[in-house]
Amino acid sequence: MKPRLKPTNPNFSSGPCAKRPGYDVANLDISTLGRSHRSSIGKLALGRACSDTATLLGLPDSYRIGVVPASDTGAVEMILWSVLGARPVDVCAWESFGRGWLTDVVKQLKLSDVSTHVADYGLLPDLTKTNPDHDIVFTWNGTTSGVKVPNADWISDDRKGLTICDATSAVFAMQLPWDKLDVVTYSWQKVLGGEGAHGMLILSPRAVERLESYTPNWPLPKIFRMTTSGKLIEGIFRGETINTPSMLCVADYLDAIDWVASIGGLDSAIAKSEANLEVIKSFVAQRSWIHFLAQQADQISNTSVCLTLDLEPEQIKKIVKLLDSEAVAFDIGAYRDAPAGLRIWCGATVEQSNVEALMPWLDWAYSQV
Questions:
Q1: Is residue 8 a part of any domain in this protein?
Q2: Distance between CA 68 and CA 74 in Å, rounded?
Q3: How far is 204 from 212, CA to CA, in rounded Å?
Q4: If the chain, 369 residues long, is cut into consecutive pieces of 10 residues, what is the mean pLDDT of each piece?
Q5: Helix axes 247-262 and 40-57, enclosed angle (nearest 10)
Q6: Total number of domains in the chain
Q7: What residue numbers bound the domain in which 350 lies?
Q8: Distance (Å, whole) CA 328 – CA 2
């Protein structure tokens, strides 16, 4: 039977993601619009994007965080091009974006001393085989596979290399062990439901030391340069951006982090995401035709929840179209490079009641194909 109750917000896209509950663009503080990002009011807003985020995430005082161009992709590229080449590199990849970083390291930077740790969709490679003397590049949460790193026990406290972590769909939804991570990147558009085009770059003191002591053999474009005369450009980590940001997007981001603070901070945001996953876990456990793409229970992502169905790819596409046409769930088809299936975003800005309302519709859509 066709369900009557629909999600009040059918936006389950894995990026850009749903805006926070109660969001209204008319309520944004747009006093910075039309002003220079280098004006006092512009610097204050951008500085708060850095300092308030650091407070919410509980970053160590010695860590830097800055707003950088081109979303999470830009943040990752900045650091790969700036610090790699000083040591051998281990690259871990188990979904599309990790494989993209592997391509950059091998085919664009053309580094020769590279070890790869690769797994198919649904699995993690054996991360314990990474070498702590090497720089290690990995994603914390595979946005296109729904497979996350369950812990950082495999990262040595006595490592010589840097750990470079693309955590775009993990920050504000999963606990991250900052002492194990030297570089962390994410974008505003994921867990916080912000807008695209802006990334965040978090650096440990060890990462800063590398930036100040190592010069790569290749030229760096202006938007990648974080040092001058061998010293870190500290202004980047106070909101003095390399290029011109969208101040409207900044206002939107500040609204998002203010919302996180208002619901109780990081722990509350994580709890909301985990509660959303529990709804789907319960649904899957009671049905034989739907499964998590992640093969290990402790590796199931609580943000980008990827599911496989006992159907042909064309049938799955019909389900996606049916749910879209009913305005029940938008943009939940699997990523183009991933196995056919569904991908339901369960980050903190998605209300549990909407995930609950979606589940009967999955039953109905399955019965229609």
A1: no
A2: 7
A3: 13
A4: 97 98 98 98 98 98 98 98 98 97 97 97 98 98 98 98 98 98 98 97 98 97 96 97 97 98 98 98 98 98 98 98 98 97 98 98 98
A5: 40
A6: 2
A7: 265-368
A8: 12
Look up the CATH number of the domain holding residue 188. Answer: 3.40.640.10
**Residue 196, domain member (yes or no):** yes
For the record, the structure tokens of 343 come out as 């991908």
| Residues contacting 140, CB < 8 A, separation 6+ | 148, 149, 165, 166, 167, 170, 174, 176
Q: Give the pLDDT of residue 188.
A: 98
1 domain residue, yes or no: no
pLDDT (tens digit per residue) in 104-145: 999 999 999 999 999 999 999 999 999 999 999 999 999 999
Say whether both 195 and 278 belong to one domain. no
273 and 168 both lie in a single domain: no
In a domain, 23, yes or no: no
Last residue of a domain, one of 199, 228, 261: 261
Calpha distance 114→87 (Å, rounded):
9
Domain boundary among 261, 277, 302: 261
Tell me what pLDDT residue 273 has.
Answer: 98
Query: What are the tokens at 45?
Result: 């807003």
Is there a single domain that holds both residue 111 and residue 250? yes
Rounded CA-CA distance 322/345 in Å is: 18
pLDDT per position as a tens digit, 325-336: 999 999 999 999
- My answer on whether omega of the bond before 88 falls inside 30° of 0, hence cis, is no
In the chain, the amino acid numbered 234 is E
